[in-house]
Amino acid sequence: MRLTSAMITNNTLMHINRNMRNLDNVIRQIETGKRIQRPSDDPIIASRALMFRTSVHENLQFQRNVDQGIAWMNVTETTFNNINKELLFEMRNLAVQGANTPNNLEPMMAIIRQMESLFEQIGHEVNQTFGGNFLFSGFRTDEPPVFTADNNRSFVITQHFNVNDISRESSFQRLIVPNRLGIYEPVTHEINVLKLAYTGLDTIPHIPGFTVVERSITDDDAYLPPAPPSPLVPPAQAVIHFVRETGELVMHNETAANFPREGVSVTFQKTGFRQGDINPTVYFTGREIVNTGIGHIPPGTQLVYNITQYFSRSSAIGPAVAGMYTFDLAFPPYADRNNHANLLDSLPTGADIVGNQVLIPARFFDLNRNVSATYAVALDSPILPATGAPTNLPARHIKEDPRVQGVELVRAIGVNGIALPLDQIELNGSFDMNNQEIQYEFASRTLITVNSLAKNILTDKMYADFRRFFQFANSLVISDEDDLIRHFTTLGYEPEVVQREVYEQLNRERQIARDALYQQFNNMLFLVDRHVDNSTREQTQLGARMVRMELVQNRLEQDEVSYTLLTSDNEDTDIIRATIDRFSAEALFMASLRANTGIIQMSIANFLR
Q: Which among 152, 221, 268, 539 could disulfide-bond with 205, CB atoms 3.0 to 4.6 Å apart, if both were Cys?
């Protein structure tokens, strides 16, 4: 094969360029510290580099999550320490001191004033914030667990009680009926009581399976509920007295002994809350009623609501007949065959609808506690005043019906058949405190809960116990001495007799008050211990999560070192080896230049010929 000068020249230039490119590549690795400059240099190294860099950045983000989570938990831990080791501990000591105070009412009342101050501080503690958010409110970080100011908000609230929430303690009341001397002196009774979180309710509480009768604290039988019927066969129900002034649900001994083991849910409505009251949206399941300006709704407008009603054995009309329980619908269904079909579809197989009643097979309740059904009802809008001032929509009395668990306005139909915009009619928000855990991700598919809930620390039962204790102490009113002197003087007693009767009457009243307060202090010792145990249990769970968080933090720090080393090994330049390669590439490049100088000389000689 004949080699031409052009071929020799091209080969020479190609070899020189290749050696120069190798030298440039080595020099670039030393200058940048990286083995490749672009993915095409080595696709394997490039793909692994992306994977390792992603792992490093994920690890850094997880570490930031850990830092924030630990900071959140540290603030929470401080709150727990303040409540458990300082406030509740001191309140227990004061309760012990009160139970051991000699027969003197004034020192007892002074102790209660101290306990009130400490309990108010517990409310401030659960209102702790972190980064501008309330720590113990779950997802409702803009809602304080304890109200910081008086307000006029309105809620329908469901509060749950179990058999362990029944307290056995003394009542204290001044009856309207006077004694033999015409004096309204206090009386006490041993009672079984459930304590609602609030007083001043808008409605009588509804308790499925029980008949709730409202009583005033001045009624003779307020704390003497009747024994349940025997045998207790539906529709007969045990009676519970609701004492409006105190928020107490008082029951007979037999009623308490046969209280449902699974507990009961008490539903009621309350409007208006004081500073220091617990916030329903953070503690309970329910809905807030907010009626906005509705003066623009013309009279005669038909409002259609979807309501959800629950049916259980206790709400049936009598015992099962032919294997079927019969229930009344809370409201007449909307006259629409589609609505009738939808209602039937939401009921169990075998159910039937007859007028405004529902028939459900009894066998279904052997496996299910209740059945829910959704159907539509239609109500006419109210006649509005001439001023166009806002008024309550018909939905208000739907929501107040204890059988109704959900209400949704779906249509508003004017007298001309034209639908009205719903967003101008009503605002109503439901809430519950289920699944309120705030979780941070600290590794792929590894979540840890960082928050604790106020309802598990300052529980609604703790709040009700202390509220009722302070309310009880404030109700211990002793007759005024001057009033007694005037009373006995009016009866015609001699001065020395008046003094003796006044002394005996005041001593008797003070003894009654002391005995009642003494029992309250002893009862509070038990209750405080129970609440301390509950709060300590929550703190222990927090501590377990904090230990796990610290372990995760250590692992992430170790992973950061590992991922950094892997990234460095994959893409960083080995300087020692690169330096040797540079000398080798440089020598090869210079050798190729020297070798080709002879070819250039020969080419010039051939040219001159």
A: 268
Question: Residue 369 has what pLDDT?
Answer: 63
Token pair, residue 93, equals: 């000591």
The answer to whether 531 and 462 are in contact (CB under 8 A) is yes
Q: Any idea what the Cα angle at residue 377 is, between residues 371 and 383, rounded to 5°?
A: 145
CB 251 within 8 A of CB 95: no
Residue whose structure tokens are 């020799």? 8
451 near 275, Cβ under 8 Å?
Answer: no
Sheet holding 352-354, edge to edge: 324-328, 357-361, 352-354
Of the ranges 167-176, 181-190, 273-282, 436-445, the best mean pLDDT one? 273-282
- What torsion do the CA atoms of 602, 605, 607, 609 make, to the nearest 10 degrees? -140
Element (H, E) at 161: strand 151-161
Name the phi and psi angles at 391, rounded to 5: -140, 170
Token pair for 279: 């916030």
Per DSSP, the residues of 64-79 read HHHHHHHHHHHHHHHH
- 567 by Cβ neighbours in 10 Å (0-12 / 13-18 / 19+) ranks as middle
Tell me how far apart the alpha carbons of residues 410 and 387 are, in angstroms, rounded to a whole number: 27
The answer to whether 228 and 252 have CB atoms below 8 angstroms apart is yes
Crossing angle of the two packed helices 105-126 and 460-474, in degrees rounded to 10? 150
DSSP 8-state secondary structure symbol assigned to residue 278: B
**Structural tokens at position 52:** 């390792």
Q: What are phi and psi of 574, to 5 degrees?
A: -80, 100
Structure-token pair, residue 176: 């309207």
Query: CB 551: neighbour CB atoms within 10 A?
Result: 10
Of the candidates 199, 189, 255, 247, the residue with the CA atom closest to the CA atom of residue 223: 189
The model carries a pTM of: 0.68
Q: Whole-angstrom distance between the N-terminal and C-terminal Cα of the chain?
A: 23
Q: How confident is the model at residue 478 (pLDDT cuts 50, 70, 90)?
A: confident
The answer, yes or no, to whether residue 134 has pLDDT greater than 60, is yes
Cβ(313)–Cβ(390) below 8 Å: no
SS (H, E, C) 434-464: CCCCCEEEEECCEEEECCCCHHHCCCHHHHH
Q: Residue 170 and residue 187: Cα distance in Å, rounded? A: 10
What are 181's two structure tokens? 């001397």
Phi and psi at 236, nearest 5°, equal: -60, 140
- Alpha carbon distance 499, 401 (integer Å): 57
Pairing of the two strands 238-243 and 210-215: parallel
Task: Provide the token pair at 411.
Answer: 């249509």
In the numeric block, the tokens 């039988």 are attached to: 221
Whether 156 contacts 399, CB under 8 Å? yes
Residues 216, 217, 218: CA angle, nearest 5 degrees: 90
**Predicted local confidence at residue 338, as pLDDT:** 62
Q: Is there a contact between 291 and 392 (Cβ–Cβ < 8 Å)?
A: yes
Site of tokens 């939808």: 342
Q: For the chain, give the number of residues.
A: 609
Question: Measured over all CA atoms, what is the biggest interatomic distance in the chain, rounded to whole angstroms?
Answer: 163
The backbone torsions φ and ψ at residue 79, rounded to the nearest 5 degrees and listed phi first, read -65, -45
Residue 523 pLDDT > 90: no
CA 216 from centroid of its chain's CA atoms: 33
